[in-house]
Input
Amino acid sequence: MSFEHEAEHEHLYANTVIPGLLQTREYALAIHQAREVRSPNDVIEQMVDARIQRQGILRREPPLHLWAVLDEAVIRRTVGNSAVMAQQLEHLYQMTQSPTVEIQILPFSAGAHAAGAGQFVILGRYDERNRVAVRDSKAPGGPTLAFPAAAFAAFVDEVRGASADGRLV
Output
């Protein structure tokens, strides 16, 4: 069982592509085709299937509460083609209709910000342990570390505040 499956909430910042939990199948396919140029199609399809299956945590009972801040570059970068992007942007809007999914856009006009060093994911639970797990997205397969939530509160609040005017809904 992964930290993500055990988590009750996930806070993330993405600065290059739409996070996997929010991707459409077509967007995920385009991402994997670009990253896995030497992989056979059946392997890429398995990767896409795994990504889409992972999204089930947003529909489980109780569902994962997802709060995502997307850098403006994420929604401006064309992945696949214009039809794939149009479908992906519509999907993002539809996801915001869920009471457990919040998406904000960090506009270019925000300038330098607390998350300037790159992507992050914070996983947590609402129980008495009050701990979060932080995964460095730049190190696939790297260690996942657990820290007290208070250590990240100011950082998360700063990124959330910088994107406050960029609410998707």
Remarks:
- Residues 119 and 137 are 6 Å apart (CA to CA).
- Helices lie at 3-6, 25-35, 41-54, 72-76, 82-95, 150-162.
